[in-house]
Amino acid sequence: MLLSSIFYAKLLLLNIIEKKFMADKDFLVIKLEKHPTKDIMDDHVNGELTVIWRDWDKIISHEPKMVYVSSVFPGQVKGPHIHTKRNSYFSCIHGSVTFIVKDKNGKYHEIETNSDEPTLIHIPKNIASAHLNSGNEIAHVLTLADVSWKPNDNEMKNITFDDYDWKRLKT
C-alpha cells in the first residue's frame, strides 16, 4: 500500500513538473500515461491503455461536460477558429495531427501529436487554433470540452491565419 501511494505521489509530481515545463501562457501540452494491457490466460501483451483523464489527477482544470471524437481527413485542416465560451482538451487517438495555436501575441506554435506518443493539448477559450492532418490516413482526435456544444449556440468564431505558411506543413 505504501509503495502504491509513493508511486502515485511521484506520478502526480511528474505530471505537475511536465505540465509546467511544456506550458505556454496561452496553451498547455501534457504527456499522457500509456500502459500495456495483458491477456488473462498467458499474460502476453495484447494492447495498451492510454489515460486521458482521471478526476484525481487534477491535470484538467476545467471539468469536462462533453466528450467527442472528430476525424480529420489526410491533407485537411479543421479551423482555424476560436471558442469564446469553452476550454478544449485534445488528444490524437489515431494517426497524427499538427495543432497550430496562435497565442495572444500573434505568435504561432506548432504541436505535433500522434497516437504513438499520446499528449493532451489544452486550448483555452479565446485562443485561436487549427488542426492539420499532414499524414496519409484519417486522423481521429478525442476532445473533452467544459461547455457542451448546442446547435446554433454561436460560440465558435471562424478566423483566418493569413500570415501562416500552410504550404510548409501540407503534403
Question: What's a quick, concise take on this entry?
Answer:
The chain has about 170 residues and is mostly beta strands. It has one helix at about 1-20; strands at about 25, 25-30, 35-40, 45-50, 65-70, 75-85, 90-95, 95-100, 110-115, 120-125, 130, 140-145, 155-160. It has one domain (about 1-170): Jelly Rolls (Sandwich).
Describe the protein.
This protein has 171 residues and is mostly beta strands. It has one domain (2-168): Jelly Rolls. It is 12% helix and 43% strand. The chain is built from one helix and 13 strands, in the order αβββββββββββββ. It has one helix at residues 2-21; strands at 23-24, 27-31, 34-38, 45-50, 66-72, 77-83, 88-94, 96-102, 108-114, 119-123, 128-132, 139-145, 156-158. The strands form three sheets. The protein has a six-stranded antiparallel β-sheet. Strands 9-8-11-6-13 form a five-stranded antiparallel β-sheet, with no helix packed on it. A two-stranded antiparallel ribbon has the order 3-4. The protein is globular, with a radius of gyration of 17 Å. Residues 1-22 have low confidence and may be disordered.
